[in-house]
Amino acid sequence: MRILVLGAGGHLGGHVAERLGSLPGTRVLTGGRSAGCDVRVDLAAGSPALLAQALATAAPDAVVNCAGATGGDPVTLAEANARGPAALCAALGRALPAARLVHLGSAAEYGPGAPGERTPESAPTRPLAPYGATKLAGTVAVTSSGLDAVVLRVGNPVGPGSPRSGLPGRVAALLREAGDGPDAVVRLGDLSAYRDFVDVRDVARAVEGAVTAPGPLPPVLNVGGGRAVRVRTLVRALAGTAGFAGRVEESGAGSARSERVSWQCSDIRAARDALGWRPAYGLHDSLAALWAAVPPVPTAPRGEAAP
């Protein structure tokens, strides 16, 4: 089986490519803009015709789209998260209409959830920010394409290699930089929001299930931890994992999105039924793996200042 993973150089894409590469009899091809990719494609700017040619040459049995943008201005987000999936679907329709497409969406497409409740795939989508809105546009492009496709709406990823662009990775980096003395301080914004955290390795397992499942799948499946965790709880648990002896202060500028979306929790029963999938890693396992992978702060040679 040949599987093309688009965005394999990213955090989720790297874990997905590694997981799929361990399947017997499978060859994983990487796709993206960098010279090291097996298939050079630019979903955000490439024409569907050129994309179709590249796909036809690679001839994968399945395509996993992990490409996208989590930050940037609205135009950048729209190009990566909305235009990219639409161009990919158009290209697949021309070149490989029988190939299965697994596209990574986001729980941000739902917008604010009802406190105390889990959000099913049938819930209304009402994102409040450009990121969620552009991810939703990408989902609509995939689900209306007529392809053999499924969108995995991923919760808040956490685990080894979490980038600084996301809260768990940023907090881990700040804890490492602050040191472990009792006078160390890490300043963050308001941490009262609830989020559904899911281990990146569990996301990769869900992708594996979606790629290899026989027959058609539901158009959208939630992939999350299935429980809401207060962000403050995650930060304190990560500080404990790190052995941090200082203080965490909620005195910095808070996230406008957190203020407007105070609760997110995904109902993951449909993924269990369709893929036989459920999370295998608990939050503390994820945080331990995250902290173990955080690089140490460089130390300057004696007599020299640190950069």
Automatic annotation (TrEMBL):
Residues 3-224 form the NAD-dependent epimerase/dehydratase domain. InterPro entries: Epimerase_deHydtase, NAD(P)-bd_dom_sf. CDD domains: SDR_e. PANTHER family: DTDP-D-GLUCOSE 4,6-DEHYDRATASE-RELATED (PTHR43000). Belongs to the NAD(P)-dependent epimerase/dehydratase family. This is NAD-dependent epimerase/dehydratase family protein. The lineage of its organism: Bacteria, Bacillati, Actinomycetota, Actinomycetes, Kitasatosporales.
